[in-house]
Write a structure and sequence with these properties.
This protein is mainly beta. It has helices at 11-27, 67-70; strands spanning 81-87, 96-102, 118-126, 133-143, 146-155, 159-166, 173-183, 188-195, 206-213, 219-226, 242-244, 252-254, 258-259, 264-265, 276-280, 289-293. It is built from two helices and 16 strands. The model is unreliable at 4-65 (pLDDT under 50).
């Protein structure tokens, strides 16, 4: 996961993280949460090969290998691609993002599983430099030997944290919210990443993380993403796409208040325009954005 300008730790940091993780796993019977590097958008910052997963996911349903997983295509060279829209304000007051993000089970990954292929759809607030991002959404990837659908959040340079993995009902919406708040102990502005469940609305939310320092000149983003462009299939079909927002709960950005915003499609980030598609519900000011793969 990430946005169209890039994120990443050094190789030494990854090696150190793996060593610490292996040590902690041996010392405790409780499985730690998954923390995996996510891939940047710009090619000059992409690794030559995706790193191996670290640790194991938590709150994961028991995986049952599916025949479809065994016939997935082979992964090509790593290449991220996005079907995304941005919202930017010259007054630098993009304070939050919220939207229901839909689960669509029509998609396809690539093999071997160790390559860590994924298809995801998310909302985010990103620094204007493209180095740091705070995001939340739905991801399809291999978990415990089978393709599963998980909820996911990320901060910093786009390190993903997956949870609530399994095989959910197609078409389910999960409500996510990213909002700036003032942290009194540190006297700094930070972001809360909230999971507000599937019931509808934002009245009952669980804070997933609140540690990310707020960005000085942020932008809002809605995007679908794959890390093996043109091989991994986005979630959704032309007749049943993956939707972000609904007519009753549209995509909203926060300034002094929550409201619908003007979005600009980032065509230069889509490396597979014949296969990866997206649309807005109406012009630039959009209540709903949809993404899909023409091959599904």
């Amino acid at each position: 996961m990430g946005r169209s300008r890039g994120h990443f730790t050094t190789l030494l940091a990854v090696i150190a993280t793996v060593a610490v993780t292996l040590s902690l796993t041996a010392a405790s019977s409780a499985p730690p949460p998954v923390v995996k590097p996510v891939y940047p958008h710009t090619a000059h910052r992409q690794p030559t090969a995706p790193p191996l997963p670290i640790g194991r996911p938590y709150t994961v349903a028991k995986a049952i290998p599916k025949a479809g997983d065994l016939t997935d295509p082979s992964c090509p060279s790593h290449n991220s691609s996005f079907v995304g829209w941005i919202w930017h304000r010259s007054t630098y007051d993009v304070y939050g993002m919220r939207a229901p993000v839909q689960i669509r089970i029509k998609t396809e990954l690539c093999l071997p599983m160790s390559d860590g292929s994924f298809a995801t759809g998310w909302i985010a607030v990103e620094s204007n430099t493209g180095v740091d991002i705070t995001q939340a959404g739905i991801i399809h990837e291999f978990v415990n030997g089978a393709g599963e659908w998980c909820r996911v959040w990320a901060t910093g340079e786009g390190v993903q944290h997956i949870y609530d993995c399994g095989n959910p009902s197609d078409g389910t919406y999960v409500y996510f919210k990213i909002r700036r708040y003032y942290d009194t102990p540190t006297r700094t502005y930070r972001y809360n990443v909230d999971d507000c469940g599937t019931g509808g609305g934002y009245g009952s939310c669980h804070i997933l993380n609140g540690s990310q320092a707020a960005y000085g000149n942020p932008i809002g983003i809605v995007s679908a993403e794959t890390n093996y462009a043109c091989t991994v299939k986005l979630m959704g079909t032309g007749s049943a796409p993956q939707n972000y927002g609904t007519s009753n709960n549209p995509i909203e950005g926060q300034t002094s208040s929550w409201g619908t915003r003007t979005w600009k499609y980032q065509s230069e980030d889509n490396g597979c325009p014949s296969d990866y598609k997206g649309a807005q519900s109406s012009g630039g000011t959009s209540a709903v954005i949809s993404t899909w793969d023409t091959r599904n």
